[in-house]
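From the pipeline queue, job 12 of 40. The input is one protein chain; the requested action is below.

Action: predict structure.
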Amino acid sequence: MELPQQPPIRVVFVLLPGSLVLDWAGPAEALRIANQRLVAAGRPERFEIEFASPRPTSIGSVGVMLADLAPLPAQWTGPAWIVLVGLPGDSIAVDNAETQDLLHWLRGQRFERGRLELITVCAGALLAAHAGALAGRRATTHHHHLDELRAVEPRCDVVANRVFVIDPPVYSSAGVTTGIDLLLHRIADECGEPLAAQVAQTMVVAQRRGPHDPELSPFLAYRNHLHAALHRVQDAVSEQPQADWSVPRMAEVAHTSARHLTRLFVEHAGVAPLAYLRRLRLAAAQLALASGASVTRAAEISGFGSDTQLRRAWHQFGLPGSPSASTPLPRA
């Protein structure tokens, strides 16, 4: 049975004069690449990217002139994300006309998970705070602005020393490159971990960081290399870990011999091909268990031949407890 097609997510980057270019350019590129990879896989684009501002022209932090910016949206007809980005300076001034227009508009928004969500990058959290959007929320910002955020919105639980913080429908990141980390996380939420891994690899993001900066996702581990053929194999295996993979079949994807592929895995990824496959299957099984599947069903849909194989891999990789005692995976 074919699943119904999800509506695209409208992603509106809101820019003010002096907006930090990397705060919006990096996340926007992550979304563009995600769309590109989806189309290449025969799937529809998931994100509609827009750039809006209180004025039709603006100038970025490095002097680049931005023209034909859309007006701040007056209404929403589907799922949408508003992205607020940082501004240069030791503190964020809000007494200018453009910022006042933005804050007035923000105060009129009603954020709701899955409908209209708010993403802040760096000092974009200060704009959200001035608009009252962080009251009763957990959030983070650039370390230079943590005290300022506490002062602007005392009702916000300001979290220090975090790459990003998730408190749906609000998502905040610490600054600059962490906006890419946050958008990769959101891409994984909407399109799956394998696609997010491909986007990270395309952007040469060697390590993807999470809300608690935990161990690397298994779908991203062993990919801190630039070997194109090996990435091609890892893309294929991560997309379908339950398939009937063998080293010779992986070698066909890489257009090399099975023996040479094993050498490539060990040399560049630091793991043997079948051990890599078992780790991905184990991650798929964990996701299935977290969604309420039985151990037998989790083993089946992740590619393990039996419950016994799943339990053996569970202990081989040192996971705590057992599959039958697995609890839902934490979100943040």
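Job complete. Residues 212-216, 327-332 have pLDDT under 50 and may be disordered.
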